[in-house]
Amino acid sequence: MKFVRNASLIIFLLVAVSCGKKTNNRSLQGAADLVLQNGAIYTVDENHSWAQSIAIKQGKIVYVGSDAGAKEFIGTDTKSVDLQNKMIMPGMQDVHIHPISGGILSAACDLNGLSTIAEYRTAISNYANANPDVEWILGGGWAMSVFGVGGKPSKKIIDELVSDRPVFLRSTDGHSGWANSLALEMADITKDTPDPVDGIIDRDPETGELIGSLQEGAMTLVGKYIPNDTIESKISGLRYTMEMLNGYGITAIQDAIVRENDLKTYNYLENKNELTLRVVASHWWERSQGLEQLEHFKQLRNKYTSRLVNPGTVKIMQDGLVENYTAVLVEPYHLPSQTKGIPMVEPEFLKEVVTAIDAADFQVHFHALGDGAVRQSLDAVEESIYENGRLGNRHHISHLQLIHPDDFSRFVELDVVANFQPLWAYTGDYLTELAAPFIGAERVRWSYVIKTIQDTGAMIAFGSDWSVTSANPFHQMETAITRQSASNITALENAPVDPQQDVPLNIEESIDLKTAIDAFTINAAYVNNLETETGSLEVGKLADLVVLDRNLFEIEVHDISETNALLTLFEGRIVHGELEDL
Q1: Residue 16 pLDDT more than 50?
Q2: Rounded distance, CA 446 to CA 453, Å?
Q3: DSSP string of 64-122?
Q4: pLDDT by residue (tens digit) across 556-573?
Q5: Model-level pTM?
Q6: Which residues are paired to 80 by β-bridges?
Q7: Which end of the chain has fewer CB atoms < 10 Å from its terminal CB, N or C?
Q8: Could you please report the per-residue DSSP string of 86-97?
Q9: What are the respective helix, strand and coil percentages of the chain, to the nearest 5?
Q10: Contacts of 156 by beta carbon, 8 Å cutoff, 6+ apart
Q11: Distance (Å, rounded) from C-alpha 282 to C-alpha 398?
Q12: CB 51 within 8 A of CB 550
C-alpha cells in the first residue's frame, strides 16, 4: 500500500508540474507586441481555417484564434488594432521574378504600358533628350504584337530619333532585342554574320539586310558591348522593387536569374537591415559553359547564404518563345521551315547537367514554354532520379505555355512543381495573332493547362515573371479564375482589350480562388523551401502577412484585380501601410 500511495503521489506531482509548466509557458511568453482583432483571417493552414485574431511577438505568431482567446495576449504595452472584419492572409510569394533588372528598367527607357509605335517614338526621344550624357540608351518593354507577326521592329525607327549613341531595348518578354544601326555596328553585326546556335539575327527576307531585331542568344552579340550595371544601380533597382512588392503583400520571392553582383546587392541591403523579402536566388546556367560552373555555384552558395537569402537554385533556360518560334515543340510549327524551335541545352547533355545539379543539392528552376522543352526538362529530372534517387530538391518548371498530354501525369510522378505565370492565361494578341496560327488549334487547347495539371495531383505554384508582366498577384488570381485579362487589361501588351474579343481561354482550365491563393502562399513557400516558416498563419511561424481592403471570398471574381493591400508585415515589422489606416 505504501508503494501505491507513493506512486499515486508521484503521479499527482507529475500532473501538477505538467499543468504548471503549461501555465508558466504562457506566462513566460507574456503579452504580445501586436494583436490584430475582429478580422477575417484566412490562415491557409492544413484545414484552410478562418480566425478572428492573431497575436505577434518578436516577429513570430504566438496566437491565432478567436477574439476571446486573444485577450490573454494583450498587455499594457501591446498594440491592439480592430480590423473591422478586414481580411488577413499570409504574405504572398512570387516564385519567378526579376526584381533587380526590373527595378533598373523602371529608371531606364521604359516602354512598358505603351501600345503603339508612335508612343515608343515619343518615349525613346524623350529619354534621349533628358539623358544627353548617357553612353548607351538602354531599357525595354516593347511588345512584339505592336510590330505584327514575328515581332521584328526596325532599326530605322530608332535611327531617326537617336543616331549618335547606341540604343538597345529589350522586348517586354526579354527574349528579343531592338537595336539601332550604331549598336549593330559596334557589335560588328552585318548581314553576313551567322546566326548563333541559340538565337536569330532578323534579316529582310528579300535583301538579307539587318532589320534591327535580335532573337534570344543573338542579343548577346550586342550585350557584350553594353556596360555592366553598377552595384549602385542594382541597389536602387532592388529598393524600387521591394517597395512595389511589399505594396502588393509579397514577402518572399524566387529571383529567376542571379549572378554574383546580384547576390552582393541582396547581401548589402540585408546587412543594412533593409531587405524586406525572403529571397531564393537562382544561379544562371551559362549554356556556353559546361559542368565546371557548378563548382562556382557551390562557392557562391557557401559565401552568400544568409538568414534571408538562399542561393540554392540553378536556373536553366531550355527554350525561347512560341511567338518567335524558338520555343521547343514536340511537333513542328506550322511554318515552311518545319522548325521545332531551339533547345538551348542539348537534351542528352541536359540530363547530365540536371543530374549533377541535383546531386549537389541544388534545386533546378527550368524555363520551358514549348511542350518539347517541357518534355526535355521532365526527362532530365527523371534521369536524375534514376541516378541519384529522390533527393527532394523540389525542382520546378516555369512558364508551361504548352504541355503535351502524354506528359501531364509526369509532374506528380517526378515530384516536379508546375510553376505557371497565370496572367498569361487569356486570349490576347500574343496568342491569337503571334502564336495560334503557327501552333494550331489542337495545341492552343493545351495552353496553360493549370486545372488539368492540378487534377493529376501535382503541385501548382505561381510567379509573375515581372518585369515581363505585372507583379500584382490579384491581377494574376483573377486571370487564373476567369481565363480572361484582369480588369480588361492585357498582360503582355499593357493595353485595353476589346471586350468582345476577350473570350475566356479554355475555360475548363479555370481554377478556384482557394487554389489561386494556395499557389501564391503555402505552395510557393514549398517551392522556396520556406513552408515551415511561412506560407500560412500558424503559431510558431514568422509573422509575414497582409491585410486587404476587401474579402476575396465575398466579392465578384472580376473585382479581385481591384484589391489593395492596406498593410504588409514582414516578421511583424510594418513594410507597407500604417496601423492607423486600418
Answers
A1: no
A2: 11
A3: EE-HHHHGGG--TT-EEEE-TT-EEEEPEEEEEE-HHHHHHHHTSEE-TT--SHHHHHH
A4: 999 999 999 999 999 999
A5: 0.90
A6: 35
A7: N
A8: -EEEEPEEEEEE
A9: 40, 20, 40
A10: 212
A11: 13
A12: no
Rounded CA gap, 372 and 352, in Å? 18
Give Cα separations from 61 to 29, 48, 90, 491 (angstroms). 12, 17, 11, 36
Q: Read out DSSP for 437-475? A: HHH-HHHHTTBS-HHHHHHTT--EEE---TTSS---HHH
Which element (helix H / strand E) includes 8? helix 2-29
* Percent of all residues in the chain with a pLDDT value above 70, rounded to a whole number: 92
Q: What is the pLDDT of residue 491?
A: 43
Cβ within 8 Å of residue 14, ≥6 positions away: none
Indicate whether 26 pLDDT > 90: no
Taking only the tens place, the pLDDT of each residue in 101-151 is 999 998 999 998 888 999 999 999 999 999 999 999 999 999 888 988 878
DSSP calls for 256-312: EEE-HHHHHHHHHHHHTT---SEEEEEEE--TTS-TTHHHHHHHHHHHH--SSEEEE
Tell me, what's the pLDDT at 17? Answer: 35
Position 4 scores a pLDDT of 36
Report the C-alpha gap between 169 and 228 in whole angstroms: 15
Answer for the pair 579, 567: CB distance below 8 angstroms, yes or no: yes
Instruction: Indicate the residue type of 168.
Output: F
d(CA 356, CA 346): 15
Q: Which three cell numbers stand for residue 124?
A: 525613346
Question: 240: which 3 cell numbers?
Answer: 524600387
Cα separation of 126 and 122, whole Å?
6
Q: Name the grid cell of 214.
A: 535580335
- The answer to whether the Cα torsion of 374, 379, 382, 383 is positive or negative is negative
- Residue 223: CB atoms within 10 Å: 14
Q: Around 299, how many Cα atoms within 13 Å sit in the side-chain half-sphere?
A: 7
Task: Determine the Cα–Cα distance for residues 117 and 145; give it in Å rounded to an integer.
Answer: 11
Q: Which residue has the cell 506531482?
A: 13
Which amino acid appears at position 140 of this protein? G
Under a CB-based contact definition with an 8 Å cutoff, are residues 180 and 153 in contact? no
Q: Give the per-residue pLDDT at 245.
A: 98
Q: Give the whole-angstrom CA distance, residue 531 versus residue 392.
A: 14
**Are the C-beta atoms of residues 374 and 382 closer than 8 Å to each other?**
no
Listed residue (333, 414, 423, 339) closest to 374, CA to CA:
414
Written as nine digits, the cell of 414 is 517526378
Residue 380, C-alpha cell as written in the block: 532530365
Residue 493 has pLDDT above 80, yes or no: no
- Partners of 477 in beta bridges: none
